[in-house]
DNA sequence: CCTCCTTTGATACAGCTGTATCAAAATTTG
DNA sequence: CAAATTTTGATACAGCTGTATCAAAGGAGG
């Protein structure tokens, strides 16, 4: 198999481990087992653990932003864009729950390794915020970046409460629907120039 | 020194380590050094690491809820209560930043150890949500618990963005002020019965 | 004084960690 | 086929981890 392919496989194994058991579950030997590959090969690509972890996190940030871009580029009304973002961010199915867990791991990692993981985390968040702000701004929404951050904040927070069993999925959805209702009057350009 | 005093000192050392370097920084030997005590004594109280960690997390949840209760029991108008909550939760000074880091550690720990840390985390969140919901409900706010969760969500999310340098402190404050502005019409009982 | 509680010291052990190093297969590629 | 690349195997090592076990010192209260 080609070099790039193997590297990808290995980084996918790292992602899976992150999603399942957090940062502590990512050991070189565990990665080898998860990728169904010898420990020696994990060393062969991505020589050090930090390099491997860093590359995985960068890849993750890229993927996350790219995925959201693909979905949001069919621009609807601003409210629809925000609704789609919230819907996408909500950890309801297996995949999005895994993604949320990876995000939490990354957030925690940013504390321990501000240089490696912190940079990836900031890149991730900044990319999402920039893109969301751009889309909103293009629709004439006032104070677009501030709103983008607010939407990201509530998405993250509600996701956390959902993962911690403080909200059921229907409760989370109706909470966000309420939130969107209150947001509606602020989304038109002529309503208020900030 | 009395038994309870030492135990408290040790758990405070655990908290400090959590705030500084996340979960991985909490080793028995590091706790001993941080508490300026011998390793043997850390074993003497809180025999197992899991027990020590669990007790610390429980204590933390208690403290956090109690602190917020003390502040919110001087009941003002609903908007003021929510504003106070947001203000308190915002990681601006050293202490609240440390607290936020501990919270992130706890959140991540809830993934790795759903039994020990997960329980403490849920207790923490539930306690905060219950109390906030009670206060709001007593003021006649409709759908109080849902709103309580929403406020907690945005507080957590904005805190995360602030810690990750995606928002400056003034930006975060004006974001929350905007949010509160939109919330105001919904806080009176006669405005809308949900 | 003597007994109980607290505290320390030194040290051990097995387990997991990242990393390194030998040679040797297996596979792909020219 | 031959050469280069990819992959494995078997270990090794030093470091940190939680936990355990020895004896002994220090202090408080009866």
Give a structural overview:
2 copies of one chain form a homodimer. Chain A is mainly alpha-helical and 194 residues long. Chain A has a domain of 131 residues: Tetracycline Repressor, domain 2. The first copy, chain A, contains 9 helices and no strands. Chains A and B meet through helix 6, helix 7, helix 8 and helix 9 of A and helix 6, helix 7, helix 8 and helix 9 of B. Chain A binds a DNA duplex (30 and 30 nucleotides) through helix 3.
CATH topology name of the domain at 56-186 in chain A, in short, is Tetracycline Repressor, domain 2
CATH superfamily of the domain at 56-186 in chain A, by name, is Tetracycline Repressor, domain 2
Instruction: State the distance separating the first and last CA atoms of chain A.
Output: 56 Å
* Major sheet description of chain A: none
Helix content of chain A: over 70%
Number of strands of chain A: 0
What best-fitting shape of chain A do the alpha-carbon axes yield? elongated
CATH class of the domain at 56-186 in chain A: Mainly Alpha
**Binned strand content of chain A:** under 5%
**Main interface pair?**
A-B, 44 and 44 residues
Please give the radius of gyration of chain A in angstroms.
19 Å
SS class of chain A: mainly alpha
Task: Specify the CATH architecture of the domain at 56-186 in chain A.
Answer: Orthogonal Bundle
């Amino acid at each position: 198999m080609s070099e790039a392919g193997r590297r990808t496989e290995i980084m996918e194994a790292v992602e899976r481990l992150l999603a399942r058991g957090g940062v502590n579950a990512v050991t070189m030997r565990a990665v080898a087992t998860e990728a169904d590959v010898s420990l020696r090969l994990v060393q062969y690509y991505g020589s050090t653990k930090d390099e491997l972890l860093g590359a995985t996190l960068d890849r993750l940030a890229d993927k996350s932003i790219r995925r959201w871009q693909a979905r949001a580029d069919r621009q609807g009304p601003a409210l629809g864009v925000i609704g789609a973002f919230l819907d996408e961010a909500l950890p309801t199915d297996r995949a999005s729950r895994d993604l949320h867990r990876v995000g939490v791991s990354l957030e925690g990692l940013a504390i321990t390794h501000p240089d490696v993981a912190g940079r990836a985390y900031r890149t991730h968040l900044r990319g999402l915020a920039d893109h969301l702000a751009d889309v909103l701004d293009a629709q004439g929404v006032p104070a677009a970046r501030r709103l983008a951050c607010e939407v990201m904040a509530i998405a993250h927070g509600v996701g956390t409460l959902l993962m911690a069993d403080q909200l059921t999925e229907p409760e989370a959805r109706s909470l966000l629907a309420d939130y969107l209702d209150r947001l509606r009057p602020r989304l038109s350009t002529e309503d208020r120039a900030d």
